[in-house]
Amino acid sequence: MIVVLKPNPDKKQLESFKQWLSSKNIKVHKSEGINTTILGLIGDTTQIDIDSIEALDIVETVKRIQEPYKNSSRKFHPEDTVISVRGATIGGENLTLIAGPCSVESKEQVCEIAKAVAASGATVLRGGAFKPRTSPYAFQGLKAQGIDYLIKAREITGLPIVTEIMDISQLPLFEEIDIIQVGARNMQNFELLKKLGTLKKPVLLKRGLSATYEEILMSAEYIMAGGNKEVILCERGIRTFETHTRNTMDITAIPVLKKLTHLPILVDPSHATGKADLVAPLSKAAVASGVDGLLIEVHNDPEHALSDGPQSINLESFDKLSKTLFAIHKVIQE
Amino acid sequence: MIVVLKPNPDKKQLESFKQWLSSKNIKVHKSEGINTTILGLIGDTTQIDIDSIEALDIVETVKRIQEPYKNSSRKFHPEDTVISVRGATIGGENLTLIAGPCSVESKEQVCEIAKAVAASGATVLRGGAFKPRTSPYAFQGLKAQGIDYLIKAREITGLPIVTEIMDISQLPLFEEIDIIQVGARNMQNFELLKKLGTLKKPVLLKRGLSATYEEILMSAEYIMAGGNKEVILCERGIRTFETHTRNTMDITAIPVLKKLTHLPILVDPSHATGKADLVAPLSKAAVASGVDGLLIEVHNDPEHALSDGPQSINLESFDKLSKTLFAIHKVIQE
Amino acid sequence: MIVVLKPNPDKKQLESFKQWLSSKNIKVHKSEGINTTILGLIGDTTQIDIDSIEALDIVETVKRIQEPYKNSSRKFHPEDTVISVRGATIGGENLTLIAGPCSVESKEQVCEIAKAVAASGATVLRGGAFKPRTSPYAFQGLKAQGIDYLIKAREITGLPIVTEIMDISQLPLFEEIDIIQVGARNMQNFELLKKLGTLKKPVLLKRGLSATYEEILMSAEYIMAGGNKEVILCERGIRTFETHTRNTMDITAIPVLKKLTHLPILVDPSHATGKADLVAPLSKAAVASGVDGLLIEVHNDPEHALSDGPQSINLESFDKLSKTLFAIHKVIQE
Amino acid sequence: MIVVLKPNPDKKQLESFKQWLSSKNIKVHKSEGINTTILGLIGDTTQIDIDSIEALDIVETVKRIQEPYKNSSRKFHPEDTVISVRGATIGGENLTLIAGPCSVESKEQVCEIAKAVAASGATVLRGGAFKPRTSPYAFQGLKAQGIDYLIKAREITGLPIVTEIMDISQLPLFEEIDIIQVGARNMQNFELLKKLGTLKKPVLLKRGLSATYEEILMSAEYIMAGGNKEVILCERGIRTFETHTRNTMDITAIPVLKKLTHLPILVDPSHATGKADLVAPLSKAAVASGVDGLLIEVHNDPEHALSDGPQSINLESFDKLSKTLFAIHKVIQE
Question: Cα(first)–Cα(last) distance of chain A, in Å?
């Protein structure tokens, strides 16, 4: 971290600042120019609050050189993290397709979809049991029963399952779940993240609608700091001025996050736009840009889905799309 | 709700759509033009998911006329909601100043600040005991002890207290708290909102960084649908492309929300920008635009604050600002 | 266009509104419900200002059904527009690579780059002679001399050339230019657009940093309304809250614009992010999503480029990337 | 400017970088830490392109300390710029009300409005003759005739007039105009800015919809670098994710720009939101925050305005608002 001091800083304040840094085990390298004095802070500055330093009367400006995250940083962990769960593999050279309905609606529905997507190349089943809905009057999911149906579908297909948790109190119901999903609206529900950090189970962390790359990595850090190193990141659309689609899929997040972190990155093209006809082109784009996998909403009867029907594709479309995705993945691996 | 059908809609699908609407007690008024058939849906459409209807093959486009919120809507409740708590009043013709430190740091600190802000015209004390921080390595608040200190400050000054809850599990510690704050990052933590809806205690709900006006009202609706009608809304800055300030304070939110809802609206100019020297001009702006109150971070020693020091103003500045705010409030009341 | 009236509209005002519509050759289909009266406007509503109608005291809300653009709409022109210029083809089933330096710096530079990119599969040469720079103190381009050098490079390689115009007064210098580019900052320089609409020369129109899909199509409409139907659209990054990259490339723009319009769509991954190492993954993503071509900054010596060096890739990287792009294009064509 | 080098920078490249800096009259102060070498660049760095330096292989990161603008910076010109034009004064301790119709529609209309707003305290008349419209099919203004009508209104009332220029070629028509306005869409029409820099006439520069504070100051710099020091800045709403209003008025721009620059700052609350009922609360907010003046659309018959009727207030509303604005201004001056 580099601290640029204002001209003629108060000596007493400067001394007290240096003592405070010293108490944090930070060494200071001072460099004096004609108009400007620069302090280089050497040591572990992840614990230092950049805003608190900028608040000091004697400080002109501060620049962080070291990232504020450590466990998730590729600098300290150059190789890709690869997560294995019941035979499915996420990260590394793999392209992982995670598919299933937005909401679990019935045992028949989720089992039929599970069998079909497995046959088309998906290796993980997704399905919502607890549904975060903007309106308290909208369908909120089958809850515990939904989780039972997912487990049933896993028994039949062997596919590991991922589903979303909305509150710590729901955790006992997630004991059998293979991957726990944290939704975009809970990306900074820090108490939930801390709790998930104590588990031995992969966590799929979705990016908040207006979260920066650094912020999602800091949220991953909350989980990893607790000991759970199996975090999967997921881009699912950000909020911009454009209103044609529900959100704007941030394709740049993929190559940037691949550079900053060793954790696997997925994209959810279904939520990113909310329109079924955009799922195929955006899935192809994500794979071409180097994503580790996709989270795609697939429904056996999109028109009658109880939630988010408009963004689900049907079984035939998924089967066709899947082939193209693996073909593109092969091209970019060469 | 108005549904515009595509030209030559499939008759079977149209019939099945009408039956579904009928099952929801929605009446349909059909109007046929040369190229376009329009359905007017009459009844309580708050429970109808606009996206699900747009997904139908026979539908061209849908437009909501009635808002999707009811409890918080001014249409159904024209008079302002006025909330009284231990002698303080929020809403109506009042201008309520809520002040205090970002984080509770010690009994002495919070009591000294409480006495000073009360003398300057504040009628509610704020202070963070549980602090949501982007980094797991940053100071996370004094927690239960912080709440004890706030209660001590209330004993001395008589000021009711407001402090932030981060998770349902913390609720037992909030029994003595007068107003429970839900932070911006938890605005769509729906399980928490539902729980707070069962209490008999005012809830101060902060707007999420990228939440629309409709979304904050839907979150208020989650609380109100549970029976708790005492919700206070708070604008605290939104995320935009501008990076000079941490967030961009949305002044327009005040007159717009005053029109859409009967609930009181506050502004938090301290978090909205993160810079102490912007607190005064933005507070004056908020009062001039018709806000019901302000949530201002005040510190007896901003340079040594353990969190968010840069955005706190000192006791003298608050005292001076307070006088100007009441003077502006008087002008616009005339 | 559908106009929803307020309950009990003033009869005189309603009559005067209908007469005004009639004077614009718009027919009105009225439909009365219990609480709501709806007017369906039938005819060419592209000339009707939706805001003016919403302003009327008797109007509750308005919804446009027909898009406000016509010449650029795929509805009225279902087949792709394919633009041919000196042997290069843009649009249809083609993937067109447009490459060259950000700024033309010398005859040697632009000719060397032109030869190299042509050998790697580019069919159009790009290069800036007039450079729009945020700062008046920054290098503003070689101007007329830069255009001369581009023409020289065309003589040697046969590649048609595209370069940016910044003001109508520069037009005489563009007589020999094959495709005239309008930069993002001039997307709504309507006088310039009108003038370009009178030419018989393709125009490459870049999307403004915060322009919606509808707005770029309306700007295309300005050119096309003048008689010039050869407009090429280009996505080059939008402004969002994320600061890691200069802009955020909007990949969704590609499939959405392909659906709304018959005009060819390009992507400029170099300006979209401002970072050379992101050019390859984002180019691949754009091709996979169905783009018609790419505009890539290529430099023979990126480290010494006079402008925008950081985002240029070198000749070897372009050659390698080009092969992958055509391979992905082949996969998605199948 | 501070340049942080990568560990073990190539010596030859470092030498060549230093020579290049030396050729620009920039002195270098080097400071070596254990892992990091920092260069402090001393001299006039406004001409240095920060991106070009960041592109260098040997550079880790760069931080600008000095702002890239000079003429508009308050650092080099601490006192407020006060602009006088035909008796009206903008800047300093004044509150200047600029009012008039969105579009000039007829001589009678503009003269009636001019007389009324003058009586209510406005000291400058605004009115659009050339109208930038998103659609080529919308009303584009009365052009030269509109300017004639404005001049007529000035003759009658004595009010100086401000109106918008859209292209350099229109300049001859602006000879009699007192203040030339540059619209938001032309904020980075650099050729136009350069031309206006050669005039001896105040320029009212509106902020682009997604322009940062630094960018509007750089655009002011284009005008000032040409010799014309009379630039007036105007905030008119930025583009955000919120769709309830057309744009989001950025109230923070006022105190921030007052700190960064000595130029006067206005706010246009009419365009910022596009809704007449928001003009009053937002005008009051702007005055309370310290703005130098307001640009308000006033119409004698808002319902029949040819453009932007919905956002115009009528003569009575303006008269009432004006009184409150001067009262608030008095409070904050005390």
Answer: 40
Chain B residues whose beta carbon lies within 8 Å of the beta carbon of residue A133 = 190
Per-residue pLDDT of chain A (334 residues; tens, 9 = 90+): 888 888 888 888 888 888 888 888 888 888 776 667 888 888 878 777 787 787 777 888 888 877 889 999 998 899 999 999 999 999 999 999 999 999 999 999 999 999 999 999 999 999 999 999 999 988 899 999 999 999 999 999 999 999 999 999 999 999 999 999 999 999 999 999 999 999 999 999 999 999 999 999 999 999 999 999 999 999 999 999 998 898 999 999 999 999 999 999 999 999 988 888 999 999 999 999 999 999 999 998 866 655 555 678 999 999 999 999 999 999 999 8
| Cα torsion through C279, C283, C289, C290, rounded to 10 | 150
β strands within C11-109, DSSP E? 27-32, 37-42, 59-63, 83-85, 88-90, 96-100
SS3 state at C298: strand
Instruction: With beta carbons under 8 A apart, name residues in chain A contacting C324.
Output: 331-332, 334
Report the C-alpha gap between A334 and D308 in whole angstroms. Answer: 57
Q: pLDDT (tens digit, 9 = 90+) per residue, B94-112?
A: 999 999 999 999 999 999 9
Q: Which of D1, D6, D38 to mutate to test the interface with A (most CBs of A within 10 A)?
A: D38
Type of residue found at A126: R
Tokens found for residue B78: 């024209």
The number of beta carbons lying within 10 Å of the beta carbon of residue C329 is: 17
3-state secondary structure of D236: coil
| Distance in angstroms (rounded) separating the CA atoms of residues B157 and D118 | 51
What's the one-letter identity of residue C92?
G
Closest partner CB to C31 (pick from B31, B35, B61): B31
Q: Please, what is the end-to-end C-alpha distance for chain D in angstroms?
A: 40
For chain C, the chains sharing at least 3 beta-carbon pairs closer than 8 angstroms are A, B, D
C303 touches chain D (CB under 8 A): yes
What does the longest C-alpha to C-alpha distance in chain D come to? 76
Of A135, A190, A307, the CB nearest to B68: A135
C320 vs A: CB within 8 A = no
Query: pTM here?
Result: 0.94
CA atoms of A179 and D44, how far apart (whole Å):
56
Q: Is A63 exposed, middle or buried (0-12, 13-18, 19+ CB in 10 A)?
A: middle
Partner residue opposite D136 with nearest CB, options C52, C169, C225: C225
Candidates A7, A3, A13, A66; CA nearest to A40 is A3
Q: At what angle do helices C107-119 and C144-157 cross, to 10 degrees?
A: 40
Which residues are bridge partners to C3 per DSSP? C39, C62
Collect all residues with Cβ–Cβ distance below 8 Å to B12 and sequence separation of at least 6: none
Q: Hey, what domains does chain B have and what are their CATH numbers?
A: 2-63 (3.30.70.1140), 83-333 (3.20.20.70)
C-beta atoms of D250 and B272 within 8 A: no
